[in-house]
């Protein structure tokens, strides 16, 4: 059979240690108009773009992909679909911070400029406040349930809040884990057991959406200048190296709902590797609009090649 080579053009960055791979050319045209429709087209007809670009051997379970598209709304500057090693994520703040720095690298965003970005779950804004610093105004976020207790086999009852920050999170304050990078294996095991227990108990987000991110909190480790430190388990089994911007948004919504965070007050959230996002909220009806600040750095760019004779042309699925 004649060989053909497909080429996906990428720019890589990391945000607080968490990688983002922006794919900006080389993919097929997607059906539909909105980002939600285009995501459905990507998922059902061209899922190889996702797996070829983030799964091994070209990526890893830590990489979040960001397919950069023209916006459907002329008022917006860009559209994006985020995905990972197992499927599609709704919104991704670390990825939006990476995307803003990538747009600057491409000459499409100037310092102090704002990119208005369409996602499948709403519009967000990313403002470049310095070469590597970005402020993201996220989608409306809210706590849907407080103090939900679930029985987790092997661990016993675990209590947490359910909140939306662009993805669904179960946020746990009380537990007996030590949030240290050295404990990532045990933290992953614990969070995976919580996620399964929520599934088994039929506990979900609004509209029955799966709670696919689990977030643990503790006081920050020695020498970390933050209000809190977290560990976030992502849907594909990897942990977020950054403090997770949608998870921080969910946390801010919960703090606000408990009367522990006033509008405009700053919250410094550290992640498990010690990188920090700064967040605050404004209220809008029953929701909050979170603003998350972080930084990203370009780490590479090029073309991902897939040879049609390669058994892993579309990644290890
Ligand atoms: O920063 O929102 C985030 C995120 C979601 C999944 C990984 N990072």
Account of the 3D structure:
The protein folds into 2 domains: 5-138 and 298-307, Diaminopimelate Epimerase, Chain A, domain 1 (Roll), CATH 3.10.310; 142-293, Diaminopimelate Epimerase, Chain A, domain 1 (Roll), CATH 3.10.310.10. The protein has an 8-stranded mixed beta barrel with strand order 1-2-3-4-6-7-8-16, surrounded by 4 helices. It has helices at residues 35-45, 47-54, 93-105, 184-200, 245-257, and strands at 5-15, 18-25, 64-69, 78-83, 88-89, 114-119, 122-128, 133-137, 142-152, 156-164, 168-172, 213-218, 228-233, 267-270, 276-284, 287-307. The protein is an alpha+beta fold and 317 residues long. α1 (35-45) crosses α2. The longest helix is centred in the middle third of the chain and has 17 residues, at 184-200. The protein is globular and about 60 Å long. A hairpin with a 4-residue loop joins β4 (78-83) and β5 (88-89). Bound molecules: pyrrole-2-carboxylate. Pyrrole-2-carboxylate binds next to α3 and α5.
